[in-house]
Amino acid sequence: MQVTSEQRLDDGVIERAFLLGEVPGILWTPPPASASAPAPLILLGHPPLGLGTMYPRLAQRARHAAADGFAAATIELPGSGDRPRWPALEQARAELRRAMQAGRPVDDDIVDALVLPLVEKSVPEWRAALDALLSLPEIGGPVGYSGGVISIGIRLALVEPRIKAAVLFAGSLVPAALVEEARRVTVPLHVLLQWDDEGNDRQAALDLFDAFGSEEKTLHANMGGHTGVPQFEGDAAAGFFARHLKS
Q1: 3-class state of residue 245 by DSSP
Q2: CB-based contacts of 189: which residues, under 8 Å, 6+ apart?
């Protein structure tokens, strides 16, 4: 992992941009984090809009986490930001847009083409980033995963034993294969659902929540559209991670 820039923010949080091979990422660490008192880590997922576009929201989430004693990190998704274009993914996104604009159901072929390659390529990159981050003396386990593309969260929660809890943003564009994987997820889950989300099918999102195999899973449903998640939900998610990532 090559650190490309470092700055101390006004609240004392240290923000470092890094490269892991050709994958850009950002790490935020709280002021008290040290080799003698390593901070638990939260991986910040995000939609494939590019780190530049998502930075304000990611930084806000990271600083909130740092105030609770957590380090936070994220990486650029394949085909996003300054990473090389991914024509197949762009074509799948275009087909999704055409279907939604025409008011047609989004069929399984579109969902599979859009989501499965992204999961297959990005999850190994998240795991490699986790290897590098946990090698830093000031970062320790356990690890949580928060937000982002829910299918990526499902796969990571299933295959990555270092992830002990996850906060997921409910979505319905989930391939059938990932729904089956969700049945084998056992980590504690805190799932956020916007009841009037214009981009998701509510019943499909509820069915996915029902499919999760976790003994502890909580659904927080709020009225409003995709971007209307209430501010207080950030405090609820922070409490969830405090329960599961701090002894």
Answers
A1: helix
A2: 157, 165, 166, 167, 168, 212, 214, 216, 217, 218
What is the structure's pLDDT at 231?
A: 83
**Cβ proximity of 83 and 45 under 8 Å:** no
Q: Which residue from 178, 78, 81, 186 is spatially nearest to 128, judged by alpha carbons?
A: 78
| pLDDT, position 247 | 63
Rounded CA-CA distance 142/243 in Å is: 12
Non-local CB neighbours of 87 within 8 Å, separated by 6+ positions: none
245, 165 Cβ separation under 8 angstroms: yes
Q: Which residues of the chain have pLDDT under 50?
A: none
Query: What integer pLDDT is reported at residue 228 of this predicted model?
Result: 73
Q: Hey, what amino acid is at 68?
A: D
Give the number of C-alpha atoms closer than 13 A to the C-alpha of residue 190, restricted to the C-beta side: 20
Query: What tokens appear for 174 in the block?
Result: 């989930």
Q: What residue ranges define each of the domains in the chain, with the CATH number in brackets?
A: 2-245 (3.40.50.1820)
**pLDDT tens for residues 101-134?**
887 778 888 899 999 999 999 999 999 999 999 9
Nearest to 151 by CA among 111, 187, 110, 210: 111
Per-residue tokens: 154: 């499902």
Q: What share of the chain is helix, strand, coil (3-state, %, to 5)?
A: 40, 25, 35
**What's residue 106's pLDDT?**
80
Q: What is the pTM of this model?
A: 0.93
128, 152, 12: which is closest to 69 by C-alpha? 12
